[in-house]
C-alpha cells in the first residue's frame, strides 16, 4: 500500500489500494440491471441472488481444483479441509433459497416473462461442477450452443478426469485394490457405479477403526454429496411454490423435470453401500 499516516489518518500518496479498488465494488454494484419498466422491486433480489450463486459456484470450482491436487499429492488432510469448506459453501447455497421465497408468485409474475428464455439451465458453472463431479451428461451441452465461451468451459470440464478419477488414483496409491478397468476408464464418460469400488468402500466402513483417514475422507464426500442433493430438493420445492406445474423459462417441464434430477449422486457407491452395512446384525443383540 502506498500512503502515509497524518493525524491518525491514512493520507493517500499516489495509487493506494482501497477497499473499493481492491474489490472493484463500483464495478460490482453496476452489474444489477433490471429488465422491467417501470422497475419491479423484487427483480433486484432475483438478480442479486443469482449473481451470488454464480460467485459461490466460482469458489466451489476453485476449491475443487485444490481438492483434486491435494489428492494427487496424497495430502488427505488437505483434501479433507477443502471438502469441509465446499460443504459449508453448499450449505449456504441451500439456505439461501429461503431468501428468494420471501418473493411471492405474484411478485415474480410481474417480471417473469422478461426473463424468457433465460434459465438456471444455462448456468455453465453449475453444469461444470456436475461434469467435474462425474455427472457428464453430454445432452446438456445442447443448451450452450449459442454461448461459445460457456460451451468451451463445459467441454474442457467434460474432457478432464472427474473427482472420482482423482479419488481412485489416491486410493490405489494408498494400497487399495482398485481394478485396472476403473483406473483406465474413458474419463470423458459419466462416472458409473462400480461394484468393486463399492466393496472396497464397504470394507473401509466395516473396519473404519483401521482405515480412519480414508473413512473420514469418504464421509466428507458423503457430506458434500448430501448438501448438493439438499439444494436440489430445496430448489424444486421453491420452484413448485413459485410456478406450480407451469413449464420453465428454459423450456423444460419445470417441476416435473427437476424431480427427475433428485436421484443424481456424485458418489453412488457411498450411498448404496449403506444398505450393506449391519447385515450381520441380529436385532436386539449387540453386533459382534
Ligand atoms: C423464482 C426462482 C426460480 C424459479 C421459478 C426457477 C425455476 C427453474 C426451472 C423451472 C428449472 C428447470 C429448467 C427450465 O425449464 O427453466 C430450473 C433449473 C435450474 N435452476 Fe432454477 N429457478 C429459480 C431460482 C434459481 C436460483 C436462485 C438458482 C441459483 C443459481 C437456480 C438454479 C437453477 C439451476 C442450476 C437449474 C438447472 C438444474 C438441473 O438441470 O439440474 N434457480 N429452475
Short structural summary:
By secondary structure, the chain is mostly helical. It has helices at 19-23, 25-29, 41-72, 76-95, 97-100, 105-109, 112-115, 124-132, 148-159, 163-173, 180-183, 195-206, 212-243, 255-260, 268-272; strands at 3-6, 9-12.
Count the domains.
1
Kindly, what is the distance between the CA atoms of the first and last residues, rounded to a whole number of angstroms? 65 Å
Share of helix, binned: 55-70%
Query: Rg, please?
Result: 23 Å
- CATH C-level label: Mainly Alpha
Descriptors:
single chain; 288 residues; mainly alpha; Methane Monooxygenase Hydroxylase, Chain G, domain 1; two-stranded antiparallel sheet; 15 helices; 2 strands; 3% strand; globular; binds protoporphyrin IX containing FE
Amino acid at each position: 500500500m502506498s500512503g502515509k499516516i497524518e493525524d491518525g489518518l491514512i493520507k493517500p500518496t499516489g495509487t493506494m489500494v482501497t477497499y473499493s479498488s481492491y474489490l472493484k465494488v463500483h464495478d460490482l454494484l453496476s452489474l444489477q440491471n433490471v429488465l422491467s419498466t417501470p422497475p419491479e422491486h423484487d427483480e433486484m433480489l432475483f438478480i442479486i441472488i443469482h449473481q451470488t450463486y454464480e460467485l459461490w459456484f466460482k469458489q466451489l470450482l476453485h476449491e475443487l481444483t485444490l481438492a483434486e491436487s491435494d489428492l494427487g499429492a496424497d495430502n488427505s488432510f488437505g483434501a479433507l479441509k477443502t471438502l469441509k469448506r465446499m460443504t459449508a459453501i453448499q450449505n449456504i447455497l441451500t439456505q439461501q433459497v429461503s431468501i428468494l421465497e420471501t418473493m411471492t408468485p405474484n411478485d415474480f409474475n410481474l417480471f417473469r416473462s422478461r426473463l424468457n428464455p433465460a434459465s438456471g439451465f444455462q448456468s455453465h458453472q453449475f453444469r461444470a461442477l456436475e461434469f467435474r463431479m462425474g455427472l457428464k451428461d453430454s445432452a446438456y451441452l445442447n443448451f450452450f450452443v449459442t454461448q461459445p465461451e460457456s460451451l468451451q468451459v463445459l467441454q474442457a470440464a467434460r474432457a478432464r478426469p472427474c473427482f472420482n478419477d482423482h479419488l481412485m488414483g489416491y486410493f490405489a496409491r494408498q494400497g487399495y485394490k482398485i481394478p485396472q478397468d476403473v483406473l483406465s476408464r474413458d474419463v470423458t464418460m459419466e462416472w458409473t457405479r462400480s461394484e468393486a469400488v463399492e466393496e472396497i468402500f464397504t470394507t473401509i466402513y466395516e473396519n473404519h477403526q483401521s482405515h480412519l483417514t480414508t473413512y473420514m475422507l469418504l464421509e466428507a464426500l458423503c457430506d458434500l454429496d448430501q448438501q448438493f442433493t439438499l439444494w436440489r430438493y430445496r430448489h424444486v420445492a421453491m420452484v413448485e411454490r413459485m410456478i406450480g406445474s407451469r413449464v420453465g423459462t428454459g423450456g423444460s417441464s419445470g417441476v416435473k423435470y427437476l424431480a427427475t434430477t433428485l436421484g443424481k449422486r456424485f458418489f453412488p457407491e457411498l450411498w448404496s453401500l449403506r444398505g450393506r452395512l449391519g447385515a450381520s446384525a441380529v436385532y436386539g443383540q449387540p453386533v459382534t
